[in-house]
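Supplementary Methods. Inverse-folding protocol.

Structures were first reduced to a discrete structure-token string of length 456. This string, shown here, constituted the complete conditioning input.
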């Protein structure tokens, strides 16, 4: 059985940081974060998001790191080892289910991004304006065949890297490409802030106006913080099971959360000035990125090159984030069921490819399944809503309760202080207090009120 061989892992602290960050940074930063800010009223939503990161996201990330590195197992194996009875094991089962739901629609959006790389290479955006970018976007998403084929390409690329394994696949790919992504976003920012009318975009992004916040926005901000930091579904448990023994888990969680938020903000700064400058609607929804970035780069020196580079690196961000989602079920099947890595990846890729078509063909109301509604939503939106707004926060709540109440404080302290080597008692105590009392309470209140179970 694979698990009896020497277990794979990341080789250094830097590799740990980049791999974890590469899970957090993805389409969430470049695609979801900007359009959710846009459709939920800007700065006030941003503030709400930061509160969610501080009181919910970070404590849960640290808890997942604790579970993963202490047990060095996949999510279900880890909970079982920490004496989680059958009930607690549901954290792992829900997590794997959430990973599938996200993979179904995420692979579809990643397919659009891949196809934009080729469109940019072909020069399809050379003479675009605010109207023609919309047409290019609809042609990309409606299908049926092109988006399905691109989705298959995405799934194939992710699968190959995951078959290569943790060090040769995940580590090598993420360590090389993350710094490049960062540099490219900064170049986009420089271009965006020099556009005429850019200041309106800044005002929109950073103006705090609480009157614009709807009750739904609270749940959306919470869901976004989970989605952004890849939490509540065992991804961070799985990745931290590959961490080095001397890694400072609390420091890594802060570094990852901070860098991830920074990348999201930089993406927002690249996008909103352009939205306003070209007279587009900040509420445009999922198409925002695809309709603004080609405009940002049109008609500037090296614009076509930058456009190719931007979508290439966005596709890398999407790919590395998907790798971390897929690793959740793969680690489970290889370690608990004894299936070889290659076989597990191939079976999962087929499942994701087949069910993922439902998401792809329902992304636009003009798509083949665009009119089919389940619980009032198309498949694409339904997969997104159930995973981000229900399963991930629920998984997060269970993880907070499991680590806060079912594990001994001493075990948690030992793991987070690297058996007493780190001098971080105070910060562990703060974390532990927030985890036990604030995180679950906040999660419960937000969850109950926004699902309408309890009215405040
Ligand atoms: N954090 C990723 C993003 O923001 O795009 C999405 C994601 C990755 C969610 C991995 C969940 C996950 F397990």
């Amino acid at each position: 059985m694979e698990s009896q061989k020497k277990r794979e892992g990341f080789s250094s602290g830097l590799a740990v940081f980049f791999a974890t960050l590469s899970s957090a940074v993805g389409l969430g930063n470049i695609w979801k974060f900007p359009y959710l800010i846009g459709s939920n009223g800007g700065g006030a939503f941003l503030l709400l998001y930061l509160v969610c990161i501080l009181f919910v996201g970070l404590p849960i990330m640290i808890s997942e790191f604790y579970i993963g590195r202490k047990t060095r197992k996949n999510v279900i194996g880890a909970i079982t080892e920490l004496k989680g009875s059958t009930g607690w094991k549901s954290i792992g089962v829900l997590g794997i289910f959430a990973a599938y739901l996200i993979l179904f629609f995420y692979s579809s959006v990643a397919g659009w991004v891949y196809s934009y790389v080729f469109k940019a290479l072909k020069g399809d955006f050379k003479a675009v304006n605010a109207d023609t970018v919309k047409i290019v976007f609809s042609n990309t998403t409606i299908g049926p065949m092109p988006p399905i084929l691109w989705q298959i390409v995405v799934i194939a690329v992710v699968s190959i890297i995951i078959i290569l394994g943790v060090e040769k696949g995940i580590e090598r790919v993420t360590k090389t490409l993350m710094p490049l992504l960062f540099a490219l976003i900064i170049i986009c920012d420089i271009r965006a802030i020099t556009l005429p009318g850019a200041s309106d975009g800044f005002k929109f992004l950073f103006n705090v106006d609480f009157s614009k916040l709807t009750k739904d926005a609270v749940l959306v901000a919470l869901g976004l913080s989970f989605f952004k930091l890849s939490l509540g579904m065992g991804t961070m448990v799985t990745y931290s099971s590959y961490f080095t023994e001397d890694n400072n888990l609390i420091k890594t969680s802060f570094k990852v959360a901070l860098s991830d938020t920074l990348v999201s903000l930089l993406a927002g700064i690249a996008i909103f000035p352009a939205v306003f400058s070209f007279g587009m609607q900040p509420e445009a929804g999922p198409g925002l990125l695809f309709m603004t970035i080609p405009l940002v780069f049109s008609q500037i020196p090296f614009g076509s090159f930058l456009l190719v580079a931007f979508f290439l690196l966005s596709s890398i961000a999407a790919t590395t984030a998907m790798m971390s989602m897929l690793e959740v079920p793969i680690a489970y099947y290889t370690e608990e069921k004894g299936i070889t890595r290659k076989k597990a990846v191939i079976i999962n890729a087929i499942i994701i490819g087949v069910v993922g078509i439902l998401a792809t063909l329902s992304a636009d109301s003009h798509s083949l399944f665009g009119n089919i509604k389940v619980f009032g939503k198309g498949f694409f939106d339904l997969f997104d809503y159930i995973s981000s707004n229900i399963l991930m926060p629920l998984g997060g709540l269970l993880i907070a309760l499991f680590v806060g109440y079912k594990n001994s404080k001493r075990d948690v302290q030992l793991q987070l202080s690297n058996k007493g080597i780190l001098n971080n008692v105070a910060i562990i105590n703060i974390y532990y207090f927030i985890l036990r009392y604030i995180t679950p309470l906040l999660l419960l209140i937000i969850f109950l009120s926004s699902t309408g179970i309890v009215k405040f």
